[in-house]
Automatic annotation (TrEMBL):
Keywords: Chaperone, Hydrolase, Nucleotide-binding. This is CobW C-terminal domain-containing protein. Signal peptide: none annotated. Belongs to the SIMIBI class G3E GTPase family. ZNG1 subfamily. GO terms for cellular component: cytoplasm. Residues 271-366 form the CobW C-terminal domain. It comes from marine metagenome. Gene3D superfamilies: CobW-like, C-terminal domain (3.30.1220.10), P-loop containing nucleotide triphosphate hydrolases (3.40.50.300). It catalyses: GTP + H2O = GDP + phosphate + H(+). One of its GO terms (molecular function) is hydrolase activity. It holds the Pfam family cobW.
Length: 377
């Protein structure tokens, strides 16, 4: 695959996301990365620190990427690609996107997974989420976006480790790590002091292994981490959004649909994480109906879905599916199974959708698909 790999950096305000990016931009390995920064209402790139040409650093300052300026993100992907190929900006083979602290990462992933232009030229490497050791727990308890950012991450970076009192250090890091582990069982958690990061923290965190230049199944899906049972959000959400919280969002250009009305849909963030396993292969038709059905019925609540599927008639090659909010059935196939285990395994990270609902949907679709096939014969 010669696609341009995308890393999405999320993390709440004050979690050290911008410091991390500023530090990384000084590394020579970052010269082949274009950077998209959404810095509405926040302090962005510190150009005094960055000793590089800024032609492929794009700042989107008109609103929030997850809701008000989605179209700007698509335009930016297109412009960067065209300019790269025309040689009017330095060549890059990666893009790093820094979202605002308050952004919900799922709509950003949805663009990456479903926009045809973006899908043609780019592919998601992974989502890296920063959580600071000092204020992480309180942010996670106050802001549902924070919980989503941590739940869908491929890697969690605990920042500001150096700023914790030595006496409290072990306990603080352990408490935060344990709770994050309950929320997100598979993402590696790394602990970093301020300024102590390197590009390896950002790259190859998900699907793509930069060393072998191949799909790294275990780091990407890691299904055995999800097999035991459903995990749920261990951070107690507090009551509905206060006026202060709502204006806080507005100041940051973040105006998602479901916050404009009265419903508290996304408030208590009941994030659930589980893995669906299926022994028998499924037909392409069944998979297509399953993904369409799920996208229609539960789209906004599917924060992230990823998996490999054993397709009838393709016993040697597993199909890869991934999505957020919407899952397309344009399939990619791996050259071969990554292990002896040829079962279909699909990891779901959802907002309040449980495993049983997905399993019931799958068996319903299976019966419908069988009937459709029988009727066509
Ligand atoms: Zn937003």
């Amino acid at each position: 695959m010669n696609k341009i790999w995308i890393t999405v950096i999320t993390g709440f305000l004050g979690s050290g996301k911008t410091t991390l990016l500023n530090t990384l931009l000084k590394h020579p390995e970052m010269n082949q990365a274009a950077v998209i920064v959404n810095e509405f209402g926040e302090i962005g790139i510190d150009y005094d620190l960055v000793e590089r040409s800024d032609e492929n650093i794009v700042q989107l300052a008109n609103g929030c990427l997850c809701c008000s300026v989605k179209g700007d993100l698509i335009d930016t992907f297109r412009d960067l690609y065209i300019q790269r190929n025309a040689g009017t900006i330095p060549y890059f083979d990666r893009v790093v996107i820094e979202t605002t602290g308050i952004a919900d990462p799922a709509p950003v992933l949805q663009i990456i997974f479903t926009n045809p232009m973006v899908m043609n030229h780019y592919s998601l490497d992974g989502v890296v989420t920063t959580v600071d050791v000092i204020n992480g727990v309180s942010s996670l308890e106050r802001f549902p976006e924070c919980v989503k950012q941590a739940a869908i991450a491929d890697r969690l970076i605990l920042t500001k480790s150096d700023l914790v009192e030595v006496a409290d250090h072990g306990e603080k890091v352990k408490d935060l790590s344990d709770r994050l582990r309950a929320l997100n069982p598979a993402a590696p958690i790394v602990v970093r002091n301020t300024g102590d990061v390197d590009p390896g923290d950002l790259f190859g965190t998900g699907m793509f292994n930069p060393e072998t230049k191949k799909i790294d199944f275990n780091s990407w899906l890691n299904p055995q981490k999800y097999l035991s049972e459903t995990t749920e959000n261990p951070f107690n959400a507090n009551e509905a959004d206060s006026e202060a919280t709502i204006s806080y969002y507005k100041d940051r250009g973040h105006t998602p649909e479901d916050r404009r009305g009265n419903d508290n849909h996304h408030h208590n963030p009941l994030i659930k994480t589980f893995c669906i396993v299926r022994d028998e292969p499924m037909s392409l038709e069944m998979l297509r109906m399953f993904l369409e059905g799920l996208s229609n019925e539960a789209g906004p609540d599917l924060l992230r879905v990823k998996g490999i599927v054993n397709i009838e008639n393709e016993p040697e090659r597993p199909a890869i599916i991934q999505g957020a909010q919407q899952i397309f059935h344009s399939l990619e196939f791996m050259d071969r199974w990554p292990s002896e285990d040829h079962r279909t395994r699909i990891v779901f990270i959802t907002h309040n959708i449980d495993k049983k609902y997905i399993e019931d949907t799958m068996s319903l679709i299976e019966r419908v698909a069988e009937r459709t096939v029988a009727a066509a014969m």
